[in-house]
Design goal:
Length: 502
């Protein structure tokens, strides 16, 4: 009796010891991935990051969980909040077709839209059109040239942000890109006009998840003179700063981030103070996770081929003491209705309804037609680049740059997650453990959704990856052991059926 009880206790002790060893190894691997592999994968030079991501797929695992939380956050009904509303003046499919499906946005119509919208009292206007492409006719952009040349003459015009494309720099400036010149550079002298970059980062799966807040560039000198370095703000950073009247602070941060010359790297972002857009809306320039993640909150759907009408979606936000839709999508044809080449549009377009729609808003002029080449994959599905900009501006104005939770909270949740995953995979079959673990992750995502919506990104998947790696490692060891005993027969699947007796 005593021997049986002793054997039973020893068996339970061994099982408990094995479980504790599993948990301990999983915790160590989870900590290794969380605090060593992930920082190295995120912050290493490009070749090292590619090798690490291809080997462990740590970044992708974290991205997929964040994508799921983004979709859940966008699906949750929002309550009323204070925010800057947006107007997307959309070059939609019917309009583009009526323009003759030209490869380059017609400058005449673009100038008319800027001319009208900029005088309707918006906070700022962003033109999401690359102006560096050469035009087939030299006289097809006379109105746009005249608009840029005389933009300062009207005190009623809103600040204007234009796209500055960049290209790979020459060998003399290996650390910086180079500005792509446009035909309008010599005409733009107004301090109301700002050039900005629209570069984002795509993952290996082609999904746009990360922004680039600034872009260091080298401006080539004339007649072979050395180039001069400067820093372009991103479109979302420029729009958010102008909307909050923080242009002076923005220019100060750009000056601090500018390298001394085109042959040196950009100064460390850690030495640059954050840009304060308002209470609890701080923009950190440090290029570390999760501060580079785009916090999407507005999705997009492509309207029908012949549907061309104003659309309103998103929550109602408190703007100047009244509730208005966060986003208004207005086909550009309705802005250009009645346009005349004698510039009478400025007088015709100031009717109260249209002015009320644009006054104080952040206006983005861009295209959503399929052939634009500006439709990108996002966690919320395909959307035009202008919508990515709108989501980014809204995130900066609402929460600033995303950040991780407090270290103690992060460590506690990650440890609990790793222990639970280790125990599940130790006591349950892998398929059942995976289902239960998915339910645990879903519960945690729901519980932390309010924090995620406020810009706090809690990594729920990366620590648990240590458990999966541990299980895979044990499976490899078991296969090696079986191969030593059975040789090639270890490659065959084992039947679980009992032998049939005759």
């Amino acid at each position: 009796m005593r021997n049986g009880l002793w054997r039973d206790l020893r068996k339970r002790y061994r099982a408990l010891t094995a479980a504790l060893i599993d948990v301990g190894i999983a915790v160590c691997l989870g900590a290794l991935i969380e605090f060593v592999v992930v920082p190295v994968a995120y912050n290493s030079p490009w070749p090292v990051a590619v090798v690490l991501e291809g080997t462990w797929a740590v970044r992708n695992l974290s991205d997929y969980v964040a994508d799921a939380m983004t979709r859940q956050s966008a699906a949750v009904p929002w309550s009323s909040m204070r925010a800057h509303p947006f107007v997307f003046v959309d070059i939609d499919q019917p309009t583009w077709t009526s323009w003759g499906s030209e490869l380059i946005t017609p400058r005449q119509q673009l100038a008319a839209a800027i001319d009208a919208v900029s005088q309707l009292g918006p906070a700022v206007v962003f033109v999401d059109v690359d102006l560096s492409f050469p035009l087939p006719k030299d006289d097809s952009d006379v109105r746009l040239r005249d608009l840029f040349r005389n933009y300062d003459l009207s005190t009623t015009r809103a600040p204007l942000v234009l796209v500055r494309a960049v290209i790979s720099g020459p060998t003399a400036s290996p650390h910086l890109t180079q500005e792509r010149k446009t035909a309008y550079d010599s005409l733009v002298h107004s301090p109301k006009i700002i050039w900005a970059s629209t570069l984002f980062e795509e993952g290996f799966d082609g999904v746009v998840r990360r922004w680039r807040l600034v872009e260091p560039v080298c401006v080539p000198g004339a007649n072979g003179a050395p180039g001069a370095p400067k820093v372009l703000p991103s479109a979302q950073l420029a729009l958010a700063s102008i909307a909050e009247r923080k242009e002076a602070d923005l220019y100060d941060r750009l000056r601090r981030l500018s390298p001394p010359n085109c042959g040196t790297r950009q100064p460390s972002e850690k030495n640059v103070p954050p840009l304060e857009l308002g209470p609890n809306r701080r923009v950190e320039f440090v290029q570390e996770e999760p501060r580079r993640r785009v916090m999407y909150s507005l999705d997009w759907y492509q309207p029908g081929e012949f549907e061309s009408r104003p659309r309103f979606w998103g929550p109602n936000v408190d703007f100047e003491g009244r509730l208005v839709p966060l986003l208004t999508v207005l086909p550009i044809g309705q802005v250009l209705a009645g346009d005349k080449s004698d510039r009478a549009l400025a007088q015709e377009a100031v009717n109260p309804a249209l002015r009320d729609l644009f006054a104080g808003r952040i206006v983005v002029i861009g295209g959503s037609f399929e052939q634009s080449g500006d439709i990108h994959r996002t966690p919320l599905g395909p959307m035009p680049g202008a919508m990515i900009i709108i989501n980014s501006v809204h995130a900066l104005l609402s929460i600033g740059t995303p950040h991780e939770p407090r270290c103690l909270f992060h460590l506690t949740v990650s440890s609990i997650l790793v222990v639970v995953a280790a125990l599940l995979f130790h006591y349950l079959r892998p398929a059942i453990a995976a289902i239960v673990m998915a339910a645990v992750l879903l519960t945690l995502m729901r519980a932390t959704l309010s924090q995620f919506h406020s810009g706090v990104i809690l990594d729920l998947a990366v620590p648990a990856a240590g458990v999966l790696i541990h299980r895979q490692f044990l499976a490899v060891l078991a296969f090696v052991h079986a191969f030593r005993k059975k040789r090639w027969r270890a490659l065959l699947a084992e039947s679980e059926e009992a032998p049939i007796e005759h």
